[in-house]
Amino acid sequence: MKKIAVYPGSFDPITNGHMDIITRGLRMFDELIVLIAYNPNKKTLFSVSERLEMIREVIKDFNNVRVDSYDGLLVDFVRNVGANVILRGLRALSDFEYEFQLALINRRLNREIETVFLMTGYKWFYTSSTIINEAASLGGSVKGLVPDIVNQKMLEKYACKKERL
Ligand code: ADP
To answer: Probe ligand 1: pick from 91, 116, 133, max atoms within 8 Å of CB?
Structure first.
């Protein structure tokens, strides 16, 4: 049977830290689905369709990774696509408590589904979409922290925002 894992997150935008988890996740699973999961508590910089487009572009060379978006319950999506693993990345200690809660609630919601964690690559320990957005919004270069096409989209996005001010 094919081992399929779902890698959910906001991916606002996708970073090299996320890419590292995808690449390493592929060593364990036959197929990965990157899922833009709707989070009502997060105000995002990029729309879902912009994020879908960027992720499609950066995963285009992998034939066993696809991207989707979903605004319902994560465990329902996982079950509907025939997967039984949720893949998550762990960075600093600060991630731990939230990830722990999330894994437990998802397990309570569906006992057939397990959450698997990969430790971040040391290069990406401090990389988060939030911190990257903050740096970029103030004109800092985030080259090397995000895929090149994402860097380009961020430059365009913040140039547009500046024009509107
Ligand atoms: P964030 O906005 O914090 O970057 P996302 O919601 O997009 O996070 O993250 C999706 C998943 O990817 C989470 O499990 C998160 O811990 C993980 N992740 C995000 N950045 C990294 C990174 N630099 N290294 C490892 N895992 C990461």
So the answer is: 91
Q: What is the pLDDT along the chain (165 residues), one digit of tens a residue?
A: 899 999 999 999 999 999 999 999 999 999 999 999 988 778 899 999 999 999 999 999 999 999 999 999 999 999 999 999 999 999 988 789 999 999 999 999 999 999 999 999 889 998 999 999 999 999 899 999 999 999 999 999 988 776 665
Whether the predicted model's global pTM rises above the 0.85 cut: yes
Contacts of 153 (CB under 8 A, 6+ apart): 13, 46, 50, 54
CATH 3.40.50.620 fits 4-126, yes or no: yes
User: Among all chains, which residue has been given the structure tokens 């991916």?
Assistant: 11
Query: Domain coordinates of the chain in residue numbers?
Result: 4-126
- Cβ atoms of 7 and 35 closer than 8 Å: yes
- 35 HSE (CA, 13 A, CB side): 27
Token reading at 118: 């990969």
Atom 15 (ligand 1): residue with closest C-alpha? 89
Taking the CA of residue 85 as centre, how many other CA atoms within 13 Å lie in the half-sphere pointing to its CB?
Answer: 17
Length of the chain: 165
